[in-house]
Amino acid sequence: MSQAIEQPRIVKIRENVLKKNDILARELRKRFQEQQVYVVNIVSSPGSGKTTLLTEVLARLSQKFNVAALVGDLATENDAHRLEQSGAKVKQITTGTVCHLEAQMIEDSIKNWDLNQLDFLFIENVGNLVCPSSYDLGENLRVVLFSTTEGEDKPEKYPTIVNSADIAILTKIDLLEAVDFNKESFYQSIYQSRPNMKVFEVSAKKDIGINQWMDFLIEEKMKAFKKMEV
Amino acid sequence: MHELSIAYSLVQLAVETAEQNHLKKVEALRLKLGVFSGVVKEALEFSFDIATEGTIIEGARLIIDEIPLKIYCPQCEKEYVLKKPVPVKCPKCSIGTDQILEGKEIELYELVGG
Ligand SMILES: [Zn+2]
């Protein structure tokens, strides 16, 4: 083995830094597809009403489908416990200080699950609008959540996560007037990073828009697995 | 801050590549970082020093090339590089597009070593 001495060498690579996560996410996506599990990854800030909304949706979907949820919690939180009230199968992923979920955590969590028995899997990501954007979890749909109480200009502060998401949900729509929320500015703020993005306006408290979102999910699930059912 | 996680992934990839290519020492790494990668450049640079400690990459320089957003406009049927990441619109005809060709990458593309 002859090696050049003291000669600087340039090695060309062109490799994605998150390659391992991406490969694992691709494998997960394939497994979910084969077992016809529709996977929804939900990202938001803390306090945006994600857990309340999800508890409601899990409870309703559970009447017709087998539904499960994975919840990414920092060590100090416990959203999983609240979600269990829906009656759905819930598993907590305690991330410690890590501010996002990675594909490996998903794989570890579902290791002993019979995916064949499952129709929907919801992944509640760690509450934060920056870090989760870089990590593919093998989901079918990425949902970014905002609430009226966060102000209408929030989406433009987080263009990357908005762009990486497939749909958006605006929660606490019942508080629209109370918090003086400008809906038109909000939509502009969203469209800056994601033109014509589909947005659902919901209120878990006043039962607004939840069934519409649910119908959308059921429809998307049917579309995603249509070819396989023929 | 997820840049520390990214930095560890970067160092792991660089060490593996260096070993495969029989590099004894790595002087510099070149990274392409898209404006829509979700990674903050300064935070990554800071994390990089921590993540390299005790590896063969320790002391190497991290050179980050920021990659602007490149979109495809379906109306003009052309590609454009945007000066600013938002709004994600065609600079010519102002139509919005979700066809992003470049600007999301976190890509290690070169190692300089000996
Ligand atoms: Zn155009």
Could you give a quick summary of the protein structure above?
The complex is a heterodimer of chains A (230) and B (114). By secondary structure, chain A is of the alpha/beta class.
Structure explained in plain terms:
The complex is a heterodimer of chains A (230) and B (114). With 230 residues, chain A is of the alpha/beta class. Chain A is 35% helix and 23% strand. Chain A has helices at residues 19-34, 50-61, 79-83, 103-109, 154-157, 159-164, 183-193, 210-224, 226-229; strands spanning 9-16, 38-44, 67-74, 89-96, 120-124, 141-147, 167-171, 198-201. A 7-stranded parallel β-sheet of chain A has the order 4-3-5-2-6-7-8, sandwiched between helices. In chain A, helix 3 (79-83) links the parallel strand 3 and strand 4. With 114 residues, chain B is of the alpha+beta class. Chain B has a single domain (2-113), classed as hypothetical protein PF0899 fold. Helices cover 26% and strands 31% of the residues of chain B. Chain B is built from 2 helices and 6 strands, in the order αβαβββββ. Chain B has helices at 3-20, 41-52, and strands spanning 26-34, 61-67, 70-73, 78-81, 100-102, 106-113. In chain B, the strands form 2 sheets. In chain B, strands 2-1-6 form a 3-stranded mixed β-sheet, with helices on one face. In chain B, a hairpin with a 4-residue loop joins strand 3 (70-73) and strand 4 (78-81). In chain B, helix 1 crosses helix 2 (41-52). The radius of gyration of chain B is 17 Å and the shape is elongated. The relative contact order of chain B is 0.27. At the A-B interface, strand 1, helix 1, helix 6 and helix 7 of A face helix 1 and strand 6 of B. The structure holds zinc ion. The site of zinc ion (ZN) has 7 residues of chain B, from loops. Chain B: Belongs to the HypA/HybF family. Chain B: Pfam families: HypA. Chain B: This is Hydrogenase maturation factor HypA.
